[in-house]
Amino acid sequence: MSSQPRTSAADSTTGVPTPTRGRRRGRATGPSIPLGSLTQREHRSEIQCQACGSSRVTRLSMNLTDGTPVEFTSCHRCEHRTWEHGGDALSVDSVLDKARRV
Ligand SMILES: [Zn+2]
C-alpha cells in the first residue's frame, strides 16, 4: 500500500510566470523636436523607404557600438537600409565607422 501524497496544484506565490507587460510597439519618439525646425509630416507612423518609397519596411531601434541610439530601417522591397539618429540620416560609412571604433 503506497500512500501517495497528493500533489496539490501549484499554489505557491513563487514561480508565477510573469506575463510580458508593456508594449514594445510604436513610441519610437526620442528627444523632443523643437517646433518650427521641421516640416511636420502627416503621419509619422507611415515609414517609407527612402530609396523606393515602399512602406514595407522594418524599423528597429538599436544602439551602435559607441552608444549612439539609432533607428534602423530596412526595406523589404529593395533592401535599402538607412540609419537615423535624432532625425538625421546617417551614412552607412559613418555607421560602420561608429560600429568599428569604440
Ligand atoms: Zn526600398
Question: Can you describe this structure?
Answer:
- By secondary structure, the chain is mainly β.
- It has a domain at 57-100.
- The chain contains one helix and four strands, in the order E-E-E-E-H.
- The chain has one helix at 92-100; strands at residues 57-63, 69-75, 81-85, 88-90.
- A four-stranded antiparallel beta sheet has the order 1-2-3-4.
- Strand 2 and strand 3 form a beta hairpin.
- The longest helix has 9 residues, at 92-100.
- The protein is elongated, with a radius of gyration of 23 Å.
- The relative contact order is 0.14.
- The mean pLDDT is 76.
- The protein binds zinc ion.
- Zinc ion is lined by residues 49, 51-52, 54, 75, 77-78, 80.
Write the layout of secondary structure elements.
Elements: E1 57-63, E2 69-75, E3 81-85, E4 88-90, H1 92-100
Antiparallel strand pairs: 1-2, 2-3, 3-4
This protein binds zinc ion.
Number of strands: 4
Q: What sort of overall outline do the alpha carbons produce when their principal axes are compared?
A: elongated
Average residue-wise pLDDT: 76
Give the structural class.
Answer: mainly beta
Q: Which residue ranges are poorly predicted, with pLDDT under 50 across at least 5 consecutive positions?
A: none
- Based on CA atoms alone, the radius of gyration comes out at 23 Å
The string of secondary-structure elements, in order, is: EEEEH
> What about the largest sheet?
4 strands, antiparallel
Alpha carbon gap, first and last residue: 70 Å
Helix count, DSSP H or I runs of 4 or more residues = 1
Which molecules other than protein and nucleic acid are bound? Answer: zinc ion
What is the helix content?
A: under 10%
Question: Strands across the major sheet, in which order?
Answer: 1-2-3-4
Residue share in β-strands: 15-25%
